Every structure is written in C-alpha cells, then in structure tokens.
Amino acid sequence: MPPHQAGESRAVVFATTADGLNLPVIDVTNPAFATPNDPESLAVGRDGFLDCERRNHRVPSIVTWLLMRLAARRLVLLRKIVASDNTYLDSITTYMLKLGADHLPPGFDGPVDRKVATATHLANLRLRMQQIARLLAEALISPHADAPEALLHFGNIAGGPAFASINALIMLARTHPALIHRPIAIHVFDAREEGPIFGERATLALTAPEGPLSEIEVQFPHHAYDWNDTAPLARLLVDLVRRGAIIAASSEGGLFEYGTDDTVVANLTTLARADVPIVAGSVTSSSAVRKRMIARTKFQFFARGLEGIAPLVELSGYAIAESHTAVLSDQVLLRPLPPSQ
Hints:
Blueprint: E1 14-16, E2 22-24, H1 39-57, H2 61-72, H3 76-82, H4 91-97, H5 111-117, H6 120-146, E3 152-157, H7 163-175, E4 184-190, H8 194-206, E5 218-219, E6 222-224, H9 231-242, E7 246-251, H10 255-258, H11 261-273, E8 278-284, H12 288-295, H13 305-315, E9 318-325, E10 329-336
Parallel strand pairs: 3-4, 3-7, 4-5, 4-6, 7-8
Antiparallel strand pairs: 1-2, 8-10, 9-10
Helix pairs in contact: 2-3, 6-7
C-alpha cells in the first residue's frame, strides 16, 4: 500500500453502531477531520474557550441547568448527555461529540445541534484523540524498525472504540507503511461492549479496499474489564511478552481522568511489570476553569493535571516522557523508569 500524500483529501468511510446508527469513521490524517495542532491554533482555541467560559461563569448554575434541560427537549445529542445516569459519558456519545458539525448523523444535525458541535471544548476532544494517536505512532517507529517480524498489540484501558490506536495505525500507514505489515491486534479492556463493537466495525471499514488501512489485517478483541481487577490485563500481557510482541498501551478519556489514584497505580503497575515500553493517555486539566466546568456536571473527573498524575506515574514505575495540551486535558507519553530508580 503506497503512503498517502500529506494533506490529501479522500472519502470518509462509515460504520454502524450496535444500535444501528451509521457514523463517519474519524481519520485525523484526513483534512475532513484533522484538527490544527500548531502553537498559534492552540492559542486561538485556548483564548476562545476561556472567553466562552468567562461568559458562562456569570450565569448562575441553576439557570444553566434549566437552560440545558429545556434545550435537551429539542436536541437529541444534548439530551443524550443530560439524560445520562452515569458518572461518565458513554463512549458512543463521546465519539459523536468528536465528529464536528459537518459530520453529525441525520437526526442529530439540526441547526442548534450543529452550533453545539462547534463549541471549542468539543473540538478539543478530537484533538485529544489526535495527540494520543500521534504519541503512539511516533513512539512505535523505533521498536518496529528494530523488530520487523514482531507482533504489534495495542492495549486500550477503558478504550471504548479505541480510536487513538486506530488512528495511530493510520498515521503509520501514511508515513511508514512497511512497518505495519505484520500481525496486529487492538485489545479493548472495557466494561461495556458498545464502544468495542463500533471500533471493530470501523476498523473493518478502514481495512476495506481503497481504505487507509487496506491490505492490513487487524484483530479487535474486546475484554470485559473492571479496572479495579487487573488480573485479565496481567494474563494477556504475560502471553504477549512470551510471544515477543511489541505492546503499546493507552487510555484516552478513561483511566487517568476517571480512575482513582489506587486504580491508576494498579493498572500502570500491571503494565510496568510486563515491561510495556509505551503508555499514552489523557489527563484532565487541573486549571480553575476546568474545575468549574466539572462542578457544573455530574461526571466524576479527577482534575489532576500533570502535577497530580506525575507522582502516580512514578510510583508505578513510569515517567512522563512527553506531553501535549488540548486546553481541557494534557496528553502524556509514559516511558519506564530506569532500573536504578
């Protein structure tokens, strides 16, 4: 498969959710979905977000709540958010928030829905995924080159449809296509099945002829997982290490944002004991603005920031090797600590 040219536009492919909703498959290397990640664009996005939040902060919380409830009667997408009984947003709704106004499916694409979808903080959700995919792809280039026959396995904790891993593969297909012609698997460790079902169908669409991953075979196993019990993850890692696989783990919008300190340490320690060399994930910002946003929702984020996640990472046997910001979160690449530490 020849590499694609930078900036090349191509058709968007679609996949169906478990509920029968036909959704575009996000490929952040396609201009239709790529989010600017240069310093100037990030600064503009940050300033726009902060300006919007300053205006919202002047509105009493009860008024904001009532307005959202009223709007949710007419807006299907907003209703899914407001009506959620969970302390986290389900993976398919989160995915739809990443689509942008031009790619909302029928029934979710009214004028006000489209306006909601243009909100700066929703664009940051897609940037979050894009940044983690980039961290994974760039970290994988060296081990790929050093072990051309090794298996490649991604592990996604609370991974939903695992689009950070999927997009890391697309990036490698565009820049280093020879490196991904090997057995590949994307393992999703998630308590729910809706996200992994969609992720598997999206991967099939991407690997079809003329797709960005054509001629590549990708397995997509789902492991029912409670991140408070890491035994299933440990068992898989033992098997993969025995088989000499290259392993890259990640958690976008999951473990580091919703997990308790003990849960984060337990999962990272399990990865460290298996000598997993690449771990990437998103960390909720600890800024005052972000904390105010969280206080207006029922979602139970841990707004740790880099300064809060670093001690947990080090306690588990890793260090933050690289980080990128998307205003609401910081995306981190973790590497094992040297043996002497």
